[in-house]
Design brief:
The complex is a heterodimer of chains A (about 425) and B (about 280).
Chain A (H helix, E strand, L loop, with lengths): L2 H9 L4 H24 L27 H14 L14 E8 L13 H19 L4 E8 L2 E9 L2 H11 L10 H12 L7 E8 L10 H10 L2 E7 L5 H10 L3 E3 L3 H10 L14 E5 L3 E2 L11 E2 L1 H5 L7 E2 L2 E3 L6 E2 L4 E2 L6 E2 L2 H6 L1 H4 L6 E4 L20 E4 L6 E2 L1 H11 L13
Parallel strand pairs in A: 1-2, 1-4, 4-5, 5-6, 7-14
Antiparallel strand pairs in A: 2-3, 8-11, 9-10, 11-12, 13-14, 15-16, 16-17
Helix pairs in contact in A: 4-5, 4-9
Chain B lengths: L7 E10 L2 H10 L5 H18 L4 E7 L4 E5 L24 H20 L11 H17 L6 E9 L9 H15 L16 H9 L3 H4 L14 E2 L6 E2 L1 E5 L5 E2 L33
Parallel strand pairs in B: 1-2, 1-4
Antiparallel strand pairs in B: 2-3, 5-6, 7-8
The chains are: A alpha/beta (about 425), B alpha/beta (about 280).
C-alpha cells in the first residue's frame, strides 16, 4: 500500500472523528485487497484504480449532525472483532515463533509517538503477554537487526518474564544502519529447523525500513524456508516492499502495513490466535511431565532449601535458594515456575491448567445472533450483567435464547468463551 | 496502612450456593444451622463491607439448581442510588437506611426464589461456573460505568455448600482464566473449609472482610495444598508423566497409535537407520 496519498488526505481534515471514520473505511478497503491477493499474483496499486468516494458514506440527518452515522460506525467496529473465528479447522497449538524487530535508522522516525522503536517495543511486550495467555505451551524468541547484522535478543523460551525484561532493556539501545532480512531469517532458521514436526514454526517480522542489505540471494533463502515449512509474516511500518510480498506469499504468511498505532496493535493481536495447522504438520504424542508443587516450611524436618535450575544460569540478583517448588518427575531437578523444559533430562514440564487454557480454541463459542431491540419488548435487562438494554440491537445465544447486550457479547466472546446461561444446564459441552 | 482514597471503588460480589436439596438434607443433619442462618451471616458480611468505606459497592448472587439470580442490587433500581420503592420501610431503630433496605430486599428475593423454582431431580452438586460467569459480566459492566478518574478493585467471595459437578470442568476453567485476566495477577484468593458452620459470620468477618492490600498485614489460615497433576483420559488416574496429543491436547498414560478423542493417527518414532558409508576400494598397487 502506498502510504503517501492516504497521509495527504487525512492530514487535510482536522476533525478527529472524521479521521477515525475514514481510517475504518480505508481499513475495509484494505481487507478486500488482501483477499484478492490470493487470486491474482499482482494486484492493482491504489493510484491505478479510480477514486473511492469515501465521503459519500457519511450522511447527515435533518439537523446536520453526523452523530447517528458515527455511532453506527463505532458499533460496527466493535462487532467486527467477534467474527474472526475459524470454525472447525484444526489449529496449531504448539507454536515456536520468532519475532524479528527492525532496529535500523528508520526506527528513530517520530511518526509513532514518541518514536517508532519505543512504540514497537511497548506493543511487542503486550503481544508477548497476550501470546502466552492464549498459547501457554508455546515458545517465543526475539531477534533484532541493524547495521546489516542480526542478533538474538532472547532465545526461544516459554516464560514471558525473560522476554519482557529484555524488551524493557532494549528501549535504551540505539538505532542505526540498515536491517538485513537475509541474516535475521537465517538466524531464525538455524533454530527453527531443529524443532519437532508437530509444532508450527513461525517468524513475525516488524519491518520499518524500505531497504535490506543481504549477503546472498534472498530468493534462494525463501525457497529453503518454504521447504522447511517455516511461515513468515511481516508487519510493515512504512510502505509495501516487494521482497516482503514475495516472502510472505511463498511461505504462506500474511503481510500488512500499519496505518497508525491502534492498527498496529490490531495487526499484532491477529497473530496471537493459533493459525490453522498446515496439512503437512505431523500429529504426534508429546511426552510431558506434570510436577507437583511442594510447599515446604522450615518447620518440616525433611525440608531442605535448594537452588532452582533456572536460577543457576541467570545473572540477575536475588536469592536462589527456596524451600518449595516444582520437581521434575523424571530427574527431580527443581524449578520455580512452569511451563519449562527440564535442562537435565529434556522433559517438557507443564501443569494441567496450562493445557486447559487452550481448550477454548478447540471448542469455540458460536457467534450470537444479532436482532433489533424492538423485537424484544419482553426483556428489558441483559441476562448476564443485569444492565438495561439500551443499544439498538441485542444478541441472542442460539442454544439457550438468552438475551445479552453488546458489551457482554464482546466480553463473552473475547474473555469468557462460554455462555453464562448455557453453562447452567448439566449437560457436558 | 494506606487509607483508600475517595476515588477508589471496591466491589464485593458474594455468590451463595442455595441448592435446596443440599440445604434440605442439612436441616436433618444439623438443625441449628439452616439456610436462613447462613444468609444472616452473609448479610452481616455485606453490611460490614458497605459500611467500611462510603464508596464500597456490593452484589449478591444466589446460585440455584438451574439458574443464578441476583439478590442484590435490584434490576429495577437505577444503579448506585435510589431506593425508590413504595414498599421501602424506614427502619425505626435508626439503622443506616441503605443497609435496612438491602437486607429486607435480600430476604424478600430469596423467599421468592425458593418458592417459585421447581426442583427437579435429586442432584446435590452445585453449578458455580454459571454464577461466576454472571458475576464477571456484572463486574465488567460496573467497571465500564465508572466516572472518569475512579479506579475499581473487585473481588468475588464464594460460599459453597455442596460438592462440585465434574461435568462443569471446562466451563469452570474458562471462567477462572477470565477472572485471572481481569485481576491482572494470579487470582490470589483464599480457600477455607469452615470447621464449625454455626460460626460462619465470624469466619467471614475475620478472614474475608479485609481486601487484598490489607491481608498481607494479617495472619491468615495457611494455604491448602492443591494437586495440579493431570488425570489421564483413559483411566482417570492421576499421572506425573504422560503423553499429550498435539491436536486435541488430551492426556494419555501410555503410548497408543491413535488418539481416542480426535482419532488422528500418530507417527510412531522409529529408530533412525544409519546408512553405512561406502568404503572406497583402494586401487591395489
Amino acid at each position: 500500500m502506498n502510504a503517501i496519498p492516504i497521509c495527504c488526505f487525512t492530514r487535510a481534515t482536522p476533525n478527529a472523528i472524521i479521521f477515525h471514520i475514514l481510517q475504518f473505511l480505508i481499513e475495509l478497503h484494505l481487507e478486500v485487497d488482501s483477499i484478492k491477493m490470493d487470486e491474482e499474483p499482482e494486484r492493482a496499486k491504489r493510484w491505478e484504480g479510480g477514486y473511492e468516494r469515501t465521503w459519500e458514506i457519511l450522511k447527515e440527518d435533518e439537523s446536520g449532525s453526523l452523530k447517528a452515522t458515527v455511532e453506527e460506525i463505532l458499533f460496527q467496529a466493535k462487532r467486527k472483532r467477534v467474527f474472526e473465528s475459524h470454525g472447525q479447522v484444526r489449529l496449531g497449538m504448539m507454536r515456536h515463533l520468532y519475532v524479528v524487530i527492525d532496529t535500523s535508522r528508520t526506527m528513530e522516525d517520530q511518526d509513532l509517538k514518541p518514536n517508532r522503536l519505543t512504540s514497537t517495543l511497548k506493543l511487542v511486550e503486550y503481544f508477548v503477554e497476550e501470546y502466552f495467555d492464549q498459547n501457554p505451551i508455546s515458545q517465543v524468541g526475539i531477534i533484532t537487526t541493524k547495521n546489516k547484522r542480526a542478533e538474538k535478543l532472547t532465545d526461544l523460551a516459554g516464560n514471558p518474564k525473560k522476554h519482557i525484561d529484555a524488551l524493557k532493556k532494549a528501549k535504551d539501545s540505539t538505532c542505526g544502519g540498515e536491517p538485513s532480512l537475509y541474516n535475521s531469517l537465517s538466524l531464525a532458521m538455524q533454530t527453527l529447523k531443529h524443532m519437532p514436526g508437530h509444532s508450527s514454526r513461525e517468524v513475525l517480522i516488524i519491518f520499518s525500513s524500505l531497504t535490506t542489505c543481504d549477503p546472498a540471494n534472498i530468493y534462494e533463502l525463501v525457497k529453503t524456508l518454504k521447504a522447511l515449512k517455516i511461515r513468515v509474516s511481516v508487519i510493515g511500518l512504512s510502505a509495501e516492499v516487494r521482497v516482503c510480498t514475495v516472502l510472505t506469499r511463498e511461505t504462506g504468511g500474511s503481510y500488512h502495513v500499519i496505518l497508525d498505532e491502534s492498527h498496529f496493535r490490531e495487526l499484532l493481536m491477529f497473530h496471537v490466535k493459533p493459525p490453522p495447522a498446515t496439512s503437512s504438520s505431523e500429529c504426534s504424542l508429546i511426552r510431558m511431565g506434570f510436577p507437583q508443587h511442594t510447599i515446604a516450611s522450615i518447620s518440616d524436618q525433611d525440608a531442605k532449601p535448594s537452588f532452582s535450575q533456572a536460577h543457576l544460569d541467570s545473572t540477575s540478583g536475588g536469592p536462589g535458594l527456596s524451600m518449595g517448588g516444582y520437581f521434575c518427575p523424571q530427574c527431580q531437578a527443581k524449578y520455580t515456575e512452569l511451563p519449562v523444559e527440564c535442562k537435565v533430562c529434556g522433559l517438557t514440564l507443564v501443569s494441567a491448567p496450562h493445557l486447559a487454557r487452550s481448550f477454548h480454541h478447540l471448542f469455540p463459542l458460536e457467534a450470537f445472533q444479532e436482532s433489533p431491540l424492538l423485537l424484544h419488548h419482553t426483556e428489558r435487562f441483559c441476562e448476564a450483567c443485569q444492565g438495561e438494554l439500551k443499544d439498538k440491537s441485542v444478541f441472542t445465544c442460539p442454544s439457550c435464547n438468552s438475551v445479552f447486550c453488546v458489551e457482554c457479547d464482546l466480553f463473552i466472546h473475547d474473555t469468557l468463551h462460554c455462555c453464562p446461561s448455557c453453562i447452567h444446564s448439566r449437560s457436558a459441552p | 496502612m494506606m487509607m483508600a482514597s475517595e476515588d477508589e471503588v471496591s466491589l464485593l460480589v458474594i455468590v451463595v450456593d442455595v441448592n435446596p436439596i443440599w440445604w434440605g438434607q442439612q436441616a436433618n443433619r444439623e438443625p441449628q444451622f439452616t439456610l436462613s442462618k447462613c444468609l444472616d451471616a452473609v448479610m452481616v458480611m455485606g453490611n460490614s463491607h458497605l459500611v467500611m468505606t462510603r464508596t464500597n459497592k456490593l452484589a449478591i448472587i444466589a446460585s440455584h439448581c438451574q439458574e443464578s439470580h441476583f439478590l442484590y442490587p435490584c434490576k429495577l433500581w437505577k444503579f448506585g442510588d435510589g431506593h425508590g420503592d413504595e414498599n421501602a420501610s424506614t427502619s425505626g431503630d435508626g439503622k443506616y437506611e441503605l443497609l435496612s433496605v438491602a437486607n429486607d430486599f435480600i430476604a424478600e428475593e430469596i423467599k421468592n426464589l425458593m418458592s417459585r423454582t421447581e426442583v427437579k431431580g435429586n442432584q446435590t452438586d452445585t453449578l458455580l461456573a454459571g454464577s461466576l460467569a454472571k458475576a464477571l459480566c456484572y463486574i465488567h459492566r460496573v467497571a465500564k460505568e465508572l466516572e472518569a478518574g475512579q479506579e475499581m478493585k473487585s473481588r468475588i467471595l464464594v460460599v459453597k455448600a455442596a460438592e462440585d459437578c465434574a461435568l462443569q470442568y471446562m466451563n469452570f476453567m474458562n471462567v477462572i482464566f477470565a477472572a485471572q485476566k481481569q485481576a491482572c495477577d494470579i487470582t490470589g484468593g483464599l480457600y477455607l473449609k469452615i470447621p464449625q458452620k454455626i460460626a460462619l459470620a465470624q469466619y467471614l468477618l475475620w478472614v474475608f472482610l479485609p481486601d487484598s492490600d490489607q491481608r498481607s498485614q494479617l495472619v491468615l489460615p495457611p494455604p491448602v495444598h492443591v494437586d495440579y497433576r493431570a488425570a489421564c483420559f483413559c483411566h482417570r488416574n492421576l499421572i506425573e508423566i504422560g503423553y499429550v496429543c498435539s491436536v486435541c491436547l488430551s492426556i494419555f498414560c501410555n503410548f497408543s497409535p491413535i488418539c481416542t478423542t480426535c482419532e488422528t493417527a500418530f507417527k510412531i518414532p522409529l529408530p533412525q537407520v544409519v546408512k553405512s558409508k561406502k568404503k572406497k576400494l583402494k586401487p591395489s598397487t
